[in-house]
Specification:
By secondary structure, the chain is α+β, with helices and mostly antiparallel strands. The protein has helices at about 10-15, 15-25, 90-115, 120, and strands at about 65-70, 70-75, 125-135, 145-155, 160-165, 170-180. It is about 20% helix and about 25% strand. It has a six-stranded antiparallel sheet with strand order 1-2-4-5-6-3. A hairpin with a 3-residue loop joins strand 4 and strand 5 (about 160-165).
Length: about 190
Amino acid sequence: MIGTVCLPWWSSFCRSPEFLRHSRRTRHRASKIPSMDFVQNHYPEGFTHCFGCGRLNAHGHHVQTRWVDGEGLATFEPKPFHIAVPGFVYGGLVASLIDCHSIGTAAAAAAEAWGVDFVEEGAPRFVTATLHVEYLKPTPLGPPLELRAWPVEVGERKVLVESELSADRVVTSRGRVLAVRMPASMGG
């Protein structure tokens, strides 16, 4: 665990036996996630159509998260049509990148905490329960965008992830995503 954060709207979950059991697990276990592989490559075939990260969505962003030393890392190169005003990236793209990268990070963090072998079992699937994006300064259009995300809490059903998006090594946005296990009604 990086640290314990319990927000008021999440406090009943933070006191639950399942949270306490999982929050005490160590993050120093040997990872069963190939370090140079992308998390999204291990989503089950039926769940690879997401506009942000789905490898089977021909029109999507194809966000690809690598799990390295307890953090999710990704790079995205915005295209000229990702424009808001000349020279700057559209804020909706920033939110979408933070969202999908955080979900990939949640899958990797949960797999590591639960001892899931990505190669044998695939990545656990999560969906976004809440997304908060803080735009710190305009994101320039042109340089590759770097995404970095880390788990704050890993529970049995939920993972809280914080993230940063940078351009030219300057953090332009921060995000906070509450990821929940994909419900059975969605095929999870």
